[in-house]
Design a protein that fits this description.
The chain is α+β, with helices and mostly antiparallel strands and 383 residues long. The protein has twelve helices and 21 strands. It has helices at residues 18-23, 52-58, 60-64, 66-72, 97-109, 146-154, 162-168, 173-186, 189-206, 211-219, 225-229, 280-286; strands spanning 2-3, 7-9, 34-38, 46-47, 50-51, 78-85, 91-93, 129-133, 137-143, 232-237, 242-245, 251-263, 269-272, 300-301, 307-309, 317-323, 329-331, 338-349, 352-354, 359-362, 369-380. Strands 1, 14, 15, 16, 17, 18, 19, 20 and 21 form a nine-stranded antiparallel β-sheet that branches. Strands 2, 3, 6, 8, 9, 10, 11 and 12 form an eight-stranded antiparallel β-sheet that branches. Strand 4 and strand 5 form a beta hairpin. The longest helix is centred in the middle third of the chain and has 18 residues, at 189-206. The two termini are 20 Å apart.
Length: 383
């Protein structure tokens, strides 16, 4: 078992206090957005044996297990994070596996540097993800029913929104949503900025269900993503609840602290709430224009105390243990690689004492006995 030393990414939207509070450290005054646990080449976890990338590369079969290597190749197929949103993240969507492979191959053929700001596909992998709330957590996930979105926009009383309201009453629903999002993202920037400003003022005045959009507009004044956000479901997770975000589902995290796990990929198509590149044609090709319920997940408990967040993909499997007594022990040994993360209390994992925010990597098949009083998240794969 290897104790992990993890990198904290200082993205501008990060909370300056949430991760330090979890870790029991002093805030630096700078945003601390994400703590990465895994073998992503951009910020691999460090161990006494080298970076986790180096550890796995030295003997993939030993570290990952033969089944995981056969299924996913000689790399850890997931990235685990603690995410602390102090401001809205960009409104975004992820490709499915086939779209990612096609998009990556196309940009490679066209010679677009992988670090170019207008590059969409950093790799050939999909990026399904799961966010589990540690505090109250606000987000946007999936399209509202078009008529509900029309009512939300209409009640703002902004004349320049009337064409969007009319479009949302059209049929079929997927075509209506596509037309409205296209119109929002391709509108004249100056006119759109004025419309967003009027809409933001109305959201501030109305409050209630409009408060999240007033806050978004405060952080991104004049951004067309403010209106795009109003086409989506707003959801507030309570601690322990989660959202699964599959391919083509537009989403954004707004505020809160959570544990996030995803397939090991950087592929993001942005819809707004960002100064970064927005490729509208490619975005419209990837987005799935279907109204849907956000689908809040609650863990399914098993007799051994494991609480599993069910998802339809194999690159990651996230569960948690709430350990009520210091004397009780659980054997978490698996034939697949694991990362164990403590988020509350004090947990002993093998020879390591874990306090909130501390984690270990467990190679495939290695004995993994845990005990203590606290909450432990377990990330692994299905192989």
């Amino acid at each position: 078992m290897d104790r992990l030393d993890n990198t904290i990414r200082p993205y501008a939207w990060g909370s300056p206090t949430a991760i330090p509070h979890l870790l029991g450290t002093e805030p630096t005054g700078e945003p601390q957005a994400e703590m990465w646990m895994g073998a992503h080449p951009g910020a691999p976890s460090r161990t006494d044996r080298g970076t986790l990338v180096e550890v796995i590369d030295a003997d993939p079969e030993k570290e990952l297990g033969s089944a995981a290597v056969a299924k996913f190749g000689p790399r850890l197929p997931f990235l685990l994070k603690i995410l602390a949103a102090g401001a809205p993240l960009s409104l975004q969507v992820h490709p499915d596996l086939e779209q990612a492979k096609e998009g990556y191959a196309d940009e490679e053929r066209r010679g677009i540097p992988v670090d170019a700001p207008h590059r969409n596909y950093k790799d050939a992998n999909h990026k399904p993800e799961l966010i589990c709330a540690l505090t109250e957590f606000d987000g946007l996930c999936g399209f509202r029913d078009p008529l509900a979105a029309a009512g939300l926009l209409d009640d703002l009383g902004v004349d320049s929104l009337k064409p969007y309201v009319d479009l949302l009453h059209a049929h079929p629903e997927d075509a209506a949503l596509r037309e409205v999002l296209t119109a929002i993202l391709t509108a004249d920037p100056e006119e759109m900025s004025r419309t967003v400003a009027e809409a933001a003022a109305a959201c501030t005045r109305l409050g209630g269900a409009y408060a999240p959009y007033a806050d978004i507009a405060h952080h991104y004044p004049g951004d067309p993503g403010v209106l795009a956000a109003m086409l989506l479901n707003h959801v507030r997770l309570q601690p322990g609840e989660a959202l699964y975000l599959g391919a083509g589902v537009p989403h954004a995290y707004l505020n809160g602290l959570g544990v996030e796990i995803m397939a090991n990929s950087d592929n993001v198509l942005r819809c707004g709430l960002t100064p970064k590149h927005v490729d509208v044609p490619e975005l419209l090709r990837i987005v799935r224009f279907r109204p849907s319920d956000p689908g809040v997940l609650r863990p399914e408990a098993s007799p051994d105390g494991e609480e599993l967040y069910e998802t339809p993909i194999d690159e990651f499997r996230l569960s948690r243990y709430v350990l009520p007594e210091a004397g009780s022990a659980h054997d978490l040994t698996r034939a697949t690689p694991q990362i164990l993360l403590c988020t509350a209390g004090s947990v002993r994992a093998g020879e390591h004492d874990l306090t909130p925010g501390r984690s270990v990597f467990v190679p495939a098949g290695e004995k993994a006995e845990v005990s203590g009083t606290g909450t432990l998240f377990r990330a692994t794969v299905v192989a």
